[in-house]
Amino acid sequence: LAVSELESSLLYKAARQSAHATIEGYITSDPTYQEGISSFNLKATAYYLDGMASDDRRWRVDEEVRIKVRSRGRLKLGMGDGIRVSGRFAIPKSSGDFDYRRYLYHKGIMSVLSAHPDDIEHLPHQRLTNISSMSSVVSSVMSYAGSIRRWVKGINSSYLPPDCAGLLNGIVLGDISTIDDEIEESFRSTGLTHILAASGMNIALVLGALWPLLRLLRLRPRLQFGILVAFSALYTMVSGMSPSITRAFVMAIIALIAWLFGRGKDGLTSLSAAVLVILIINPFTLYDIGFQLSFVATASLIMFASRFERIMSELPKALRTGLSVTIAAQLGVLPIMVYYFGQVSAISPIANLVVIPLTGPALVLGMVALPLAALSKFAGALLFFVVKIILEAMIHLASTLSKIPGASLSLGSPSLITVLISYPIIAALALYFERINLKLRLWHASLLLIGLVTASIWWQVAISAPPTGLEIDFLDVGQGDSALITAPDGTRLLIDGGPDPGTLRKKLEQRGIKKIDAVLISHSHADHAGGLKKLADALTIGSIIYPRSMKDSRASSAL
C-alpha cells in the first residue's frame, strides 16, 4: 500500500515528467554539503504547478522530497525550518554500485528537486500552506532540536580540535559529517562504527541522569514519566532520529510504561513492540541498514549476552561481562555486515573491548561539558580538556589496531540465503557451548577458531589468486571509466578510477585486492581521476602514471 501510494503521488508524477514547480514544507534532515551540493529532505505540504505560487495552481501534498542545491558553501538552513523552494523535479539516478534510487525509495522518497540558492525562501511555520496542526507542532519541535544540535556542534568545535570535535559529534549526536575520513575508516575497519551512531546507551544516559533527580524531588510517578518521556523525545530529535536511537527511544517508553503500571518488562517483547511501532509509522524503515543492524544487535544482546557470560564463567567478572556483550553484538551483526559490505573485522572483539570502556566517559563528560561551558568558559575548557584526552586515546587505539595485518578481511558478499542460514547456526552453537563442560568448551572453541581462520585464509587466497591468462575487468563505477588488468603472474594495472572513491574502493575490496602494482590515469577529469583520491590509504600502490599535463593539477596533488 505504501509503495502504491508513493507511485501514484503528485510529486512522483512531476518527477517522471521533469516538471518545474514550487513546493512548500519543512526540513526533516540535517542538511549536508559535499562537492558543491547541499542536500536535505523536505516534508512537502503544498505543490504549485509551473513554479507559480498562487492558490488556483496549488495542491495539498504530504510526502518527503530530496532537495539538492548547488551552492558555494553550506546553506543557512536547519532541521525543522519552513521553506518555499522552486526547481526541477527528477527521478533519482544511481551511480555505479550505489543504487541511489533504491536508497531514497527505502526512505519513502521517490523524487528529487534540484534548485538554486536564490530559489529558496524561508517561511515561518504559520505561513506554511496546508500544514496540519500536528505537523506544525512537529516541525516547530524539530526546528528547536535542530538549533540545539547546531549549538552542540558549535560548542564542541570551539573547545576541541577538529578530529576530536568530529568524533564527539558522532558519539553524542550520531553526526558523522564532520569526522575525518581517516578516523572514520579506522573505526570502520576495526568494527567500531556503532560508536559513531547515537543509540541505546545515549538514551540510557539521559534517563539515568534524570531519574534519580526526579525521585529526589519526590515528584509523582506520572509527572516523572512525562518529564522522562519529554526529555528522551527531545534528545532523540536532537540526535537526528536515526533508526538506532528511535528504536532505543520506543523501547525506553515501553519500559517506562511498564514501570508506571507496576508491570514486569521483557526485552524481546519491548524490542518487538518497538519494531512494530517504527514500521507502522514508516514501513520503509525495514530496508534501512541502520535499522537492521540496530534490531539484530539488540536481539542478539538480549538472547545471547547472558549465555556467553555463563560460557565464560571462569573469567573475571569485568572481563566476562565485556566480552559477552561484545561477542553477542558482533555475532549478531556479522552476517549483515558481510552481506552489505563484503568485509569482516577480525580485530573487532579486541577493539571493542579496549575502546568501548572509553566511550561512556566521553559521552557523559561531553554532555556535561556543554551546559558547563555555557555557564563558565574556564570550567568548560577544563572539562573539555579531559574529554579531549579520552577522545585522542580512542582515535589512537582505533588507528593502531586498524594497521594490524589482517585486521579487516575482504570476503565478498554472500547470498541472502547464506545470511539467513547463518543465524540458526550461530544460535545452535551458542546453545551447544552453554550445555557442555569447560574442558569441552575450550577444545571445541579451539577447533572452531582454527576452522574459521583456515577458511578465511583459503577464501582470501581463492578470491585474490591470479588468473590463468590475461584478465581485463571493466569496473562499473557509474559515470566515467575504470578498468583493472591482471596479468597471469598476478601483476595488476588499474586504468582510471571513475568519479567516486567509495565506489572504486568497494569494487576492489569485493575482489580481495590489497595491492595495485601500477595506476594509470588517462587525464585529470573528475569522472576518470576522482575515484583515485586517497586510494593509497586503503591499499598498496606500486606506482602512479599520468600525463605531463597533470603534473601541477589538483588531481595529481590529491593523489
UniProtKB/TrEMBL annotation:
Domain of life of the native organism: Bacteria
Membrane-traversing stretches: 195-214, 244-261, 321-341, 353-374, 381-399, 411-433, 440-459
A GO CC term attached to the entry: plasma membrane
Domain Metallo-beta-lactamase as annotated: residue spans: 476-548
UniProt KW keywords: Cell membrane, Membrane, Transmembrane, Transmembrane helix
Membrane topology recorded in Swiss-Prot or TrEMBL: Multi-pass membrane protein
Residue stretches making up the ComEC/Rec2-related protein domain: 171-435
InterPro entries the record matches: ComEC_N, Competence_DNA_uptake, DUF4131, Metallo-B-lactamas, RibonucZ/Hydroxyglut_hydro
UniProt xrefs under Pfam families: Competence, DUF4131, Lactamase_B
Subcellular location: Cell membrane
Keyword Transmembrane helix set for record: yes
Protein's UniProt keywords contain Signal: no
Main location: membrane
Domain DUF4131: 18-115
Classification via PANTHER family: DNA INTERNALIZATION/COMPETENCE PROTEIN COMEC/REC2 (PTHR30619), RECOMBINATION PROTEIN 2 (PTHR30619:SF1)
Name of protein: DNA internalization-related competence protein ComEC/Rec2
Protein source organism: Candidatus Aquicultor secundus
Lineage of the organism: Bacteria, Bacillati, Actinomycetota, Candidatus Aquicultoria, Candidatus Aquicultorales
